[in-house]
Write a structure and sequence with these properties.
454 residues; alpha+beta; Glutamine Phosphoribosylpyrophosphate, subunit 1, domain 1; Rossmann fold; 7-stranded antiparallel sheet; 25% strand; disordered C terminus; binds 1-O-pyrophosphono-5-O-phosphono-alpha-D-ribofuranose; binds glutamine; binds iron/sulfur cluster; binds magnesium ion; GATase_2_dom; iron; magnesium ion binding; glycosyltransferase
């Protein structure tokens, strides 16, 4: 699956280099393209394909600019081209956006001269149309929130030296604010702020819009109904991030503890599937008393398989991503712990290799419920057809993965593990906290990329 993008912004000294460094710390949220925009009388944008280091040449960034925003992308709409990379800038505004606008195809019908098929360009046009009609940035963004459905955490830079940061009223995606010295910063995750030597001050609240300028910060609120993405806790976010006061690491540990308590496995060793499965496995081991062994090694230069833009690439990454420590596994009954199973690419590959390494039994326990429904709020499982659990029951999946036993957490257990009840669980339950009704129509948000059919 593909993860949610990452956004960052800074107002103050070294704004563009701080944004660049925060993007590197958010690389796990998007690995297709990256970019930085800053203000130096006009809006300048540098972006490219690939990881941050490759996409943006740090020596081209302005050392003087005091206003900057940036983005790492994994596409949920459109495709993986340079034109669709972010930030998207029209000369007066630059936008970096994490999420998906579920009704963007409808909004698109009202707009002219679009150059891409992304939801991002639709946001940019809608907001700049409101600005042209004389609305202020805050009014334009609040009006946008009234017509938009879906999940969005976004940052926006304008020519007046204002940076807006907006977390949608449902709070699907995280967004935090902090300080690095005297510079105000915004990032998708608290860990990115801390990574660059800053202090994460607080989450931007669901439905909260901040306008940052040299004069300080203004905050506006729109009516909210919170359903933060449970998948951020399960897989997406870094374990050293804290979202809405809940530590991602502690949530994953607890998911593992509940998995051990309610879904035990007759194993002699617990083997984490790196990377995101690791805290879950450590919780599982602690609760079950079964020792944890690092039987799988994740290659240092590997990418995240879920966030690759095609099935071919996802498979290739899953195949090349791991080494197997035979000495830790040989002759043992193994329980593999992963945070999630989406298409089954990772586990199908790994079960085979763990058996080849001499495991006598291979059990699998998963720190989330079966993913059975598409997401329209910023994570790329756009159609049911590609989701393993959408068409197979537990036994069929166990056969497909060739495991001795398989089990998942329930939705109730997942919410207990995270310690929040105000979570979105639509991809597990089919209950969508959206204004409109998209699921049954299986709208194709890939804009015809066509790799996955409902
Ligand atoms: O069932 P699948 O379709 O294979 O998808 C699920 C896998 O993808 C994710 O890992 P990913 O490789 O993206 O990143 P990670 O290294 O952070 O775990 C997730 O942690 C699972 O391991
Ligand atoms: N993962 C994301 O947040 C994607 C942002 C936006 N929908 C895009 O496709 O570029
Ligand atoms: S459907 Fe799943 S991935 Fe999408 S926002 Fe809800 S919990 Fe997150
Ligand atoms: Mg993984």
């Amino acid at each position: 699956m593909r993860e949610s993008c990452g956004v960052a912004a800074a107002v103050g000294l070294q704004a563009s280099t701080l944004v660049y460094r925060m993007l590197r710390a958010l690389q796990h949220r998007g690995q297709e393209s990256a970019g930085v925009s800053w203000l130096d009388g006009r809006i300048q944008t540098r972006k490219g394909l690939g990881l941050v280091d490759r996409a943006v040449n740090i020596s081209e960034l302005s050392a003087q600019a005091t206003h900057a925003i940036g983005h790492v992308r994994y596409s949920t709409t459109g495709s993986s081209t340079l034109e669709e990379a972010q930030p998207m800038d029209d000369g007066t505004l630059s936008l970096a956006f994490n999420g998906t606008i579920a009704n963007y195809m409808d909004l698109r019908k009202e707009l002219n001269n679009l150059l891409t098929i992304t939801d991002t360009e639709v946001i940019l046009k809608v907001v700049s149309n409101y600005l042209r009609q004389g609305y202020s940035v805050e009014e334009a963004l609040i009006k946008f929130s009234e017509v938009a459905d879906g999940g969005y955490s976004l940052v926006l830079l304008n020519l007046d030296g204002e940076v807006a940061a907006f977390r949608d009223p449902t709070g699907f995606r995280p967004l935090a604010m902090g300080m690095v010295g005297e510079t105000l910063v915004i990032a998708s995750e608290t860990s990115a702020i801390e990574q660059v030597g800053g202090t994460a001050i607080r989450d931007i609240q669901p439905g909260e819009l901040l306008i940052l300028s040299r004069e300080g910060v203004r905050s506006f609120r729109v009516r909210r109904e919170v359903h933060t993405c449970s998948f951020e806790y399960v897989y997406f976010a870094r374990p050293d991030s804290v979202i809405d006061g809940v530590s991602v690491y502690e949530a994953r540990r607890k998911l593992g503890e509940l998995l051990a308590a309610y879904h035990p496995a007759p194993a002699e060793v617990v083997v984490p599937v790196p990377d995101s499965g690791r805290p879950v496995a450590s919780g599982y081991s602690a609760r079950s008393g079964i020792p944890l062994v690092e039987g799988l090694v994740r290659l240092h230069n590997s990418l995240r398989s879920f966030i690759m833009p095609s099935q071919e690439l996802r498979n290739a990454v899953a195949l090349d991503k791991f080494g197997v420590v035979k000495e830790a596994i040989r002759g043992k009954k193994v329980v593999l712990i992963d945070d999630s199973v989406v298409r089954g690419n990772t586990l199908r590959t790994l079960v085979k290799r763990v058996r080849q390494a001499g495991a006598t039994e291979v059990h699998v326990r998963v720190g989330s419920p079966p993913v059975t429904f598409p997401c329209y709020m910023g994570v790329d499982f756009p159609t049911r057809g590609e989701l393993l659990a959408a068409s197979m029951d537990l036994n069929s999946i166990a056969n497909y993965l060739d495991v001795d036993s398989l089990d998942y957490l329930t939705i109730e257990e997942m919410m207990r593990g995270v310690g929040r009840r105000d979570l979105c669980h639509a991809c597990f339950s089919g209950i969508y906290p959206l204004k409109g009704f998209y699921p049954r129509t299986h709208v194709d948000l890939t804009g015809g990329r066509g790799e996955c059919q409902a």
